[in-house]
Request: fold
Amino acid sequence: MKVDSLWTCLSYVFELLSGNTVQDQLPLGQGHTSNVVSHVDNIGSEPLMFEAPRDPRTGEGFICEYPRMRGYRKCHENDKHCWIKSHDGRRKFDINSDYENPKEVPLGITRRFELDIGEMPLSPDGVTMEHGKVFNRQYPGPWIQACWGDTIEVTVTNKLQYNGTSVHFHGIRQLNTPHMDGVNGITQCPIAPGDTFTYKFRALQYGSSWYHSHYSLQYGDGMLGPMTIYGPTTAQYDLEGALEPILMTDWNHRSVFEAKTGAAPKMTNILLNGNGQYGSGPDRPEKFNMTFEEGKKYLLILINTAVDTTFIFSIDEHLLQVVETDFVPIVPYYREKLRIGIGQRYHVIVHAKPRNPARHNNYWIRTIPARQCSKFACGPDEKMGILRYNTTKPDSDKDPLSTPFLFDIQCADEPYEEIIPWKKWRVGNPANNDLTKTEFQVSLKNSSGVPYVPDKRLLRWDMHLDPFRINFSDPTILSLERETWPRYTDVVTVDTPDDGEDHWIWLLITAPYGIPSEGGERMFVPAAHPMHLHGHDFALLRQSTTSWEDDKHNFTLDCSDERVKCDNPPRRDVALLPAYGYLIIAFKADNPGKLPHL
Ligand SMILES: [Cu+2]
Reply:
């Protein structure tokens, strides 16, 4: 049987969990949950419950519950590689489990969350922005927490006055639930003002991410929040050392919807967890800060939620041990600074032991905008946070006197060779052998006749041939069986045999420069750009700063070309397309209905 494996819409959704172990959770931001499981059948061994890392805001541990995992227990504190194991130790759910295979993921519980979307003025840095759009009247939105294998159910109510919305859970695989991806125009109609929509999906992966509005640029006005799925880790840290996620973003004192057409507006400030400083007025908030206990190892969750900025993150005098890139556990490596592109996440472990102790023993947390991957009206403060030690020294509450590591701030991803996924992938040759015909050139197109502003000419990003256009009333997912597609939908159809083997779809994404195209309507710009694939982790077979125009003449687009890494290449769900360069990515054609975007 031939299966159109990219675009077949599965007509069923499987439910792994029955309703009788459901834990009802209070709306987020309205108090701590009781963490009580109702109606659990207590015959046999006790239901498995244990404390995940502590929530520093409540001081209480987040409770993981596996009432259906009879005969299992939590792995030992000193073995963070392992999550739970059978009493005889023969069966384990650990960092070696293939989290892409639902059979190798533990059966958790269902956790329910409620998110109300509303408008309110925000002043995260002392300057009021009138048109904030937020989840549950807070910015950033509430922290969605769950445990590996749980089912997450999020009921979203749109209380905005004017616009529709949809909520995307970034990086979540959405296996067999493509209609829960939250991309309006593709996987659903927008949620109209006054309407409610419930997202439900299984957390097969573990790690951290963010959820955000996928309606136009609403997330730039505040509609985003962090999400953590607790699971094993590839290096040791102390349980009590876990901290709340650190969200870094650029910020504008005007709504993103006030931006005039034309060039992207310059950003006005940086925020760390919704907290920044601007000017010197009395409303200026305290800097973001965290307190370490000497000698402990802390797990930090870093998430870039920016609109237009790649950040270089560092903590003076402290090395960062990187253990997870996006939702992919990796072989740990050490860095003085981390380059974090938009939408990328890292789990890092920090040893509370400064290399050279600074006076007063406190240290700057720096978020430096990467050169040429950021645009600010005037240079923002890069010293955005403070790491303190819980000492009683008289000067411990002063501003740090620490000095930064010396490093470059060029716009790039983390070093390609450092990112080694723990669970290995061996990528096969492309199932789509017409790769060059579907070269995805990223460019700007000078477009007219755009809906709502037909008399204006707009510069719009495009991939392949045209800016992507969606019809809110007719999401793509409803018509996947069609034979022909409009040019601007950029649909690539691949036939793969339904033989139980892995089939790899390769994509060539290029950033050419200076090549006249389409009568001068398309412009190739010398800027790096983050590329993101929904519903799959992708293998980064090659990330090149040289031009495809130079390389293509003697390039074989399969694993035989030594410039392509098929043997356990880096993988994640966001990668930076270098200016003038190109990416070759591959993903398994095992999750119908998904596509990349930028
Ligand atoms: Cu996403």
Notes: Confidence is low (pLDDT under 50) at residues 1-44, 593-598.
